[in-house]
């Protein structure tokens, strides 16, 4: 691939194009008329904001702005950096309480949207950058922390969304970045000029990338000396020249193109993942926060996962919706009073609250780092995320149990609107008492949406792989579990003297 001579722009020029966002509608406006290259179903999309498949994902992010106005005590915080209140998704965590409040807000947004609202990875990125830039400066005498704070002042004043581009395509998993057959399988620096750097490669599965104002690129794994050019962290505007977004398909996504809103299951809200390709994208020095300090990549990933694995508490908000949906459909079916139904709702709640408790505990147990920021307890954050890789699947199984087979055999909205088929369906799909058939259909479609359809991405598979596949948590738990110390407790109580060992 030839090197693009994309125009060198300064950080000031990049920020000059932003206007402060206050309301959810301001946010929608901020995404309009951007010069972004987006492919979906083999076509370039002129205006993503108005596309029926994309719009629900934008609505979910919009909710993070709406909530800040509706429930400011939950979704805003005071920023010492600009001496003003800021959206909690841009707040630099100064205490364990900040992390607890963040978790509460995440659960609330899960309840309101029933999907991934796409802003947590960005928040966790700005948290980890605070301490990593500080630590690199301490060792190398660089100026990354100052640059980071300057970026954050702009970000907070303009109330922007930052997406996290950590996961590279990775090619052959057994090989390091510098060993891949194609050097672009991990994002890397291709050129350094006095004003900044150029990066090439791609970031995979990027949540809300297209809906973000900035994308932070950062390493996805530990790096060695030969991987120097891959050890790069920088902020790229979401509409930077050289970026191409290729939209990820979701199960049942074309239902968003159909008439009517019932078969969509959750017509208003959805998630979004894209492959984001960087074709020699320029990053001005002011927005470069790591360039070649490969020995910090491992710490950066470990700290990011400490924050981000606790952020999966958001799935408890979706779990609340699932418990509610399961209880409602049992009620509509006339089975709500059965003892096994109540017991299954108890089981779902128990699983959901177990996730919540590990996340909240991890935040309460947060400790300060050298830069002054607080970080979640890593063991408990990993336990939280590991629970999330399993419990939503069991919660979904129980919701499907209570829903009955109609969950997957219910005819289409078009058939319900048909003059002949419609009345037959109304007659034969009547449930309990005066509950309208439409209520039953809507609740079944919501459960379908979250366990088999578009939002199963956010509730199930993202729960499995997002922030690292299950094995990544087991490795962290293994590292931190200190079995030798625990053997000591047991041997002490068992009366096994040192001299016998
Ligand atoms: C819905 C969704 C949203 C996401 N959002 C974001 C985002 O916003 N930003 C972002 O940066 N990332 C995001 N991710 C990416 C996520 O972090 C990765 O999916 C995750 O780290 C796993 O990587 P992978 O998908 O490449 O799977 P793979 O690496 O291919 O893993 C597949 C399996 O192979 C195993 N495996 C992989 N490598 C090895 C090895 N070397 N040795 C032994 N076993 C191995 C894994 O344990 C796993 O079981 C998202 C993912 C999903 C599904």
UniProtKB/TrEMBL annotation:
Residues 23-290 form the HpaB/PvcC/4-BUDH N-terminal domain. Coiled coil: none annotated. FAD binds at residue 207. Residues 297-495 form the HpaB/PvcC/4-BUDH C-terminal domain. GO terms for molecular function: oxidoreductase activity, acting on the CH-CH group of donors. Keywords: FAD, Flavoprotein, Oxidoreductase. InterPro entries: Acyl-CoA_Oxase/DH_mid-dom_sf, AcylCo_DH-like_C, AcylCoA_DH/oxidase_NM_dom_sf, HpaB/PvcC/4-BUDH, HpaB/PvcC/4-BUDH_C, HpaB/PvcC/4-BUDH_N. This is 4-hydroxybutyryl-CoA dehydratase. It comes from Tardibacter chloracetimidivorans.
């Amino acid at each position: 691939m030839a090197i693009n001579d994309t125009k060198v722009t300064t950080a000031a020029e990049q920020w000059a194009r932003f206007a402060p966002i206050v309301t959810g509608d301001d946010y929608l406006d901020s995404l309009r008329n951007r010069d972004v290259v987006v492919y979906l179903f083999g076509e370039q999309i002129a205006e993503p904001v108005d596309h029926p498949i994309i719009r629900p994902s934008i609505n979910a992010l919009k909710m993070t702005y709406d909530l800040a106005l509706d429930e400011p005590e939950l979704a805003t915080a005071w920023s010492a950096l600009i001496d003003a209140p800021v959206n909690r998704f841009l707040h630099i965590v100064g205490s364990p309480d900040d992390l607890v409040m963040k978790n509460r807000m995440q659960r609330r947004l899960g309840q309101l949207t029933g999907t991934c609202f796409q802003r947590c990875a960005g928040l966790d990125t700005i948290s980890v950058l605070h301490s990593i830039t500080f630590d690199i400066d301490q060792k190398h005498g660089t100026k990354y922390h100052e640059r980071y704070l300057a970026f954050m002042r702009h970000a907070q004043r303009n109330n922007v969304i930052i997406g996290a581009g950590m996961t590279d395509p990775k090619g052959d998993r057994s090989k390091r970045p510098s060993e891949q057959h194609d050097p672009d399988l991990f994002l890397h620096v291709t050129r350094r000029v006095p004003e900044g750097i150029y990066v090439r490669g791609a970031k995979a599965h990027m949540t809300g990338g297209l809906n973000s104002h900035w994308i932070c690129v950062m390493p996805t794994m530990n790096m060695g000396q030969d991987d120097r050019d891959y050890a790069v962290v920088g902020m790229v505007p979401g509409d930077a020249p050289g970026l191409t977004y290729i939209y990820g398909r979701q199960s049942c996504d074309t239902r968003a193109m159909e008439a009517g809103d019932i078969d969509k299951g959750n017509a208003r809200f959805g998630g979004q993942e894209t492959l984001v390709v960087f074709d020699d994208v320029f990053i001005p020095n002011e927005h470069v926060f790591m360039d070649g300090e490969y020995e910090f990549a491992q710490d950066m990933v470990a700290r990011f996962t400490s924050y981000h694995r606790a952020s999966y508490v958001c799935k408890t908000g979706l779990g609340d919706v699932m418990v509610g949906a399961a209880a409602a459909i049992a009620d509509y079916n006339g089975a709500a009073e059965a003892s096994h139904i109540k017991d299954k709702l108890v089981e779902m709640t128990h699983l959901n609250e177990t996730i919540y408790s590990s996340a909240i505990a991890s935040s309460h147990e947060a400790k300060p780092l050298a830069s002054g920021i607080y970080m979640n307890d890593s063991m408990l954050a990993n336990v939280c995320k590991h629970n999330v890789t399993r419990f939503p699947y069991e919660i979904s199984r129980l919701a499907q149990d209570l829903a009955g087979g109609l969950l997957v055999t219910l005819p289409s909205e078009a058939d319900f609107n048909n003059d002949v088929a419609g009345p037959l369906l109304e007659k034969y799909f009547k449930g309990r008492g005066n509950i309208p058939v439409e209520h039953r259909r809507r609740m079944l479609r919501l459960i379908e949406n979250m366990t088999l359809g578009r939002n199963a991405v956010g509730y199930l598979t993202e729960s499995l792989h997002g922030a690292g596949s299950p094995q990544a948590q087991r490795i962290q738990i293994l590292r931190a579990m200190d079995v030798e110390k625990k053997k000591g407790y047991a041997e002490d109580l068992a009366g096994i003297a040192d001299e016998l060992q």
